[in-house]
Every structure is written in structure tokens, then in C-alpha cells.
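dude i think i finally got it to work??
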Amino acid sequence: MPVHMAKRESDTVGPYNRMSASQANTYLSCPRLWFYQKVYRFKMPQIPVLFVGRAVEEAICNVLRESPGFIAANAGQYVVGSSPYSDDGQPLSGKDYVWPSMGLMPFLPGERPQSKTELEAWALERCRIHLPPALERMRLEWEKDERKAGDWSEVDPGRCLAMVESGLRFHLEEVERCFESDGGPNKEAWRRGERPSWPAPDGFPHEPFVGGHPLRGEGSVSWTEAWELARPWFVDPSAPKFTMNAIHPEHWFQGEYDLVYRWSGTPMIVDLKASVGANDRSGDYVEQLKMYAMLWYVTHNREETVGGLQIWYLGHPSIKTVPVPSVEEMSVIEEEMKTLWDELKDSTPSLIDCPPEPRAMRGFSPGGLPIEAPSTTRCEGCDWRAVCPGGEGQDGPRLEASVQLPSFNQRTSLQEIGSLNPRATVRGELFSVGYVKDNIPLKMTMKQGGNTAHIQVVSTANADGEPTVAVPAMKGAKVLLKDAIFTINWKGEIVLKMDPFSRLEADEDPDVESFDLFDFQAKHNVGGTVVYTYEKSGVGKNGKAWSRRGLMLMDHTGACKVEGWSDDWNSQYDMLEMGDVVVLANVGLDAWASEVRCDYTRNSRLQIIERVDRSAA
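look at this
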């Protein structure tokens, strides 16, 4: 099976703390780079090419999901609609839910493609229908991204279409091999309507077909049957995001395959790359596939190994074959990844534990072919060079413990970012229950003596999948709200937000320590180095436009986002550049999971203390 889900009863790692191939490769390229992006959560500039790759893969998968035995080449893009999955990615039963392909009528045998040429013509016409909406969806996502960079007008739809066509031609080579092999060893089982536990997405439910597959034939396999038999597994575009992973039986590693071909009886994993392959990352792709080979092996009771590993470079149409590691080599990979998880995930490493020690650059020509390494260093192209000691930055404190701000009568004491804690455990009684959705209260009010606070349920399930509201929400109920996020709204009212790390339960243990509502520190002063600034905007449900601004701030103890409404920032925001040293006074706190954020309001203040050298500007 290409999907191997976590077992909740034995998963002590959780979905937010697993190792992945991308994380491992990032750490191995530079420990400090991994720390900045995974611990401090620095987000690199989001250039259009990152979104183009997703659009190309989406278009390919949408064509693979369809069938020339059901869908005409010039049909609309929504002939096969969304498939029904639960929130955790489990496919829902075809007995209880309508799957999109169940209502399709098969073409007569003579109306289906009779050759590879006809099949290719059908597939290429389908990709011309699916790519434009996929590109538009990605453009809209890019537009909304707070770290968007570059210019979408530079995206060449013709080049994107060429990459999709290349991917489908590579797939058709597999279809042809299946045809020449008379369907492979699973032909008769497929004709009888049998289905693997996780079939390739085709719009039908996962249960077997009663009375045989509707496109089944007799005798030698047809081209349409070869298309159906050769269809690889891939992430169904209908499935909820981040649910189609293969998770290590011990839960500390996970990966998501692009394509898995199984028609020959021996699985082959394919990694799709909408690129030329002529840069250092091509080395990471090879290591990633080796890790995926290990993951397949351990998630199949250490009994089944993959028969092939391939990288499809769609920007320079070519297939790179990666040697499949032996069982002994996979054991070494597994041990190395577990050691890395112990170092990085079992407990969070410190900044000192992740030094700026990048490995040498590797050279590759188009198609991912190794060549002599370039003379450039990894630091030269790093997004965080201006704040990293490997470049022009430093790890030590940039500010004293207190600073004298212009027009302030007294020095302002600063808190270290690493010491900020927005979470509070509060006991009291429910005073009112407001908005309820699916029998779960999302807004409540808690009373503590003469004081009140709003409870806002942002997540109805915690990190373990259990309900965050674990008590009947009734007025007068004595409750204990654990690890809520203590915030202040624009009216100055206390709001206790519940995310996946919070829980509302009955107050049955008087020994649990809790805060008085008005004893919790609501406002803070922080300072440090500006890593980057960002802006985002949109239109609210009420039809009114909104705009927010923010920055990523780092000191010698940690990093956090500081964000507020655009109109609330003072004029100094427009002067900021990466590397400036600033103070932000009178900010509130917010959080999501382990990420701490600061809220900038009209009562906050931004002050530039030290400006980065602008001589090169």
C-alpha cells in the first residue's frame, strides 16, 4: 500500500514532529539552515516557479485520474468531480457515498482508443483542459501568500504545458510496456473487478466492482485496459492535504510518493520534478528516493522492496534512474534517519547545536547528471545570509536588556523572545455558550470571580485527534481550560483561544495550578534583528477589504512573527530592511501550536535602533 497511516493508540510522536526526506536533506546541507526554517520558522521567498511545479503535477494527476473509456477528449474539466474522504484522509464507502465515476457510462469498445497514437492524442487533449485552471489556482495561492516574490507574468503557460505533456508521454511509455506484456500479472484480477486496498485514484470507491470492471474486455489486453492497469497510485487531488502519507510504523518518519507504478507486480516509485535538474538539489532528489525505498520496505513488514526508482525531469524531458538500495543499505538509511530524528525532533535542539556549517555545493547538468561542482559556496545563495553568522549576521545579542526610546521618560525593559509564553491554564465556570457548529461550541464565555473572558475554539481536535472541548458546554459548569492562548482583542477584552494544544475539561483536580485572569501579563516589549517584512491583504466575509503587515524578528534566544493591521504601523515600517535592529513596544501575544507570535496594535510602537549598512543599495 502506498498509504500507511499512523496508529493513534501507539503514536507518541504526532503529526507535527515527524522527520521527512526534505527536512533531512535541508539539515545535511546546512544545520543552521534547517534550524532557521524548521525551529524559527523562517519562510523563504515564494517565487512563482514553486507554484508552477504544483500546477504541473496537479494537471498530470487529473489526467491520470481519468479514463479514455469513460471521458471524451474534449469533455470539460469537471467530468470526474471530487471523491469523498473523511477529514483524516480515509476513503468513504461507496455504499454510503456517491463517488464521481459511479455515474459514468462506458464507451463502446469501438469508441475507445485503438492505438498508442490515439491514446496519446486523448491524453494530450485532456492536459490542455486541466492545466489552465490548475495554473490559475496556483496563481491565486501565490497572490495570497505573505512571502510572495517575483512576477507571475514571467510564467510561460506554453512551457508549463510542455512539461505536463512530457510527464504524460513518460506515463504512456509505461502504458505501452503494460500493453506489450498483455496487461501484466494482474489483468484477470482487474477484469474480475478486484481492487487493492489503496487503488490508483480513478473516481471509483475502493471496494471491488460487483460483476467485474466496467471496461473489462476479453482475450488480449486493449489499449484502454492497459491505461487502466498501468495507472499509478498518486495523491488524489480530492483528498485532504497532508493525509496521503506513508508513515513509519514507529511514527518518526513520513513521506508522500508522487507516483507508484504497480502493474508489473513490483512497485516502482517515481518523483516528478518540474525542472531541468541542473542544480545542487538534484543530489537531494536522489537521496529522497532512497529514503522512500526504505519507507516502502518498512511499511510492508520488511518483506517487499521496490523494483525501481526514477526521477522524471519534465523541464528537460528525461528520466533518471536511481539505483535501488539493498536491504542492508536501507537498514543504514533507516538508522541514520532515526539518529537524526533523535537529535532534531525528540527534543528541540538549540541554535548552538545547529552551526552554520554548509556542505560543499554539488554540480549537475540538465537531467540531473553529475558534473564538476561549481565554485560558488552555499552561503552565497542563502536567503538568510544577512542574519546568519555564516554571512553578515551574528548569534549574540544586538540590544541591551533595556533601551531608551525617543520621548519615553524611562528606559524600556526588553523580554527575550525565547522566554515568551502566551499559554495559560485558567479555571472558572462557563457563563454563556455562543456559536455552535456540528454540536461543538466554538464561542463561550468563562467567568472567574467578577472577571470574564471569551473562549474561542480555533481547533475542535487536539494533536492526538481527541476533542479539544472535552466537557459538556453548559452554563454554570466548573471547567479547567488548559494551555489556552491568552490574547487581547481590539476592544481590550481577554480572549482565550483554543488550538490543537489546548483542552477544556471538567475542573476535578484542585491541585492543578491556574492563572487569575488579570494576573497574566498581556503586553510585552521585544527587540532584535529584522529577518524580513511581509504584507497580505484580501476581502473579508462582509465584503470589506483588509490589509495586514508584519515582520519576522530574531534575537539571540528565538524568533517570532510580529503582525498587525496595516494602518496601525507607524511610518518607520516602510523604512525597514533585512538586518535592521528594532524594538517593538507594547505588543500582545498569540500562537498556533508551538509557533509564538506577537500582535502589533495601534497602541504598539516600532522603533529602529540600528540600521543595516545600505551602502550596497
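The chain is about 20% helix and 20% strand.
im so relieved honestly
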